């Protein structure tokens, strides 16, 4: 059974200030819940139907508290239009430290606002083996329930570090990583030389890369359009852009 107070708590986790206050985030759906149970994340409470708990009896003991709940109870607590058989509350990770050396490839997200886009970027990075991304303080919160859903479990494997770009730029210089950015008028990514190490900035959905960060970019990258610019879309979705960039860097075996 899920108590009224717990339902109220779960509902409040849609908002970042309550996630921060309670130091918790919500995970819903069987795939995502099983991902956190198999990860190093701390699961404080787990609720599931009798069938779900029975089917996963060997994994649910990781949670501090396990409770049986009916589908109707889960629906009352859920943030989803079509709730599934389980949900979990997890402790927010404490680690937000930039490593002394960057890997060979990473993204810096400059004010990405749409949770679906952020989740898609995390899933894309997971697919291509990029295990860390960096985010501006005003980028959407990766522990937003909509981001968790869109990432399809990748949030447990792709680490997001929130930091002003100035701090990352210093480490990028020390790591000899080239700072690049995505622009309409940049170099064609398919025929330009790509560096062995790179930080690629992805800009806000509506405004693109901010002028302050654009000034820090050493090289501009562009994904060429294959249509008449007068009768096609003005730009690519940022999630699609991330996938193309990851694919091209990986194809060149730069990471």
TrEMBL record:
CDD domains associated with the record: SpoU-like_RNA-MTase (cd18109)
Q: Does the keyword DNA-binding apply?
A: no
GO terms classed as biological process: methylation; RNA processing
Pfam families xref list? MRM3-like_sub_bind, SpoU_methylase
Entry GO MF terms: RNA binding; RNA methyltransferase activity
Q: Give me the segments passing through the membrane.
A: none
What keywords tag this UniProt record? Methyltransferase, Transferase
- Which stretches make up the tRNA/rRNA methyltransferase SpoU type domain? 106-246
Identify the residues that the record assigns to the MRM3-like substrate binding domain, covering every copy.
5-88
Organism domain of life: Bacteria
Among InterPro entries, the record links this protein to: Alpha/beta_knot_MTases (IPR029028), MRM3-like_sub_bind (IPR053888), Ribosomal_eL30-like_sf (IPR029064), rRNA_Methyltransferase (IPR051259), SpoU_MeTrfase (IPR001537), tRNA_m1G_MTases_N (IPR029026)
Question: Which family does the similarity line name?
Answer: Belongs to the class IV-like SAM-binding methyltransferase superfamily. RNA methyltransferase TrmH family.
The molecule here is called RNA methyltransferase, TrmH family
Name its species.
Answer: Tangfeifania diversioriginum
Q: Could you read off the lineage of the organism from its UniProt record?
A: Bacteria, Pseudomonadati, Bacteroidota, Bacteroidia, Marinilabiliales
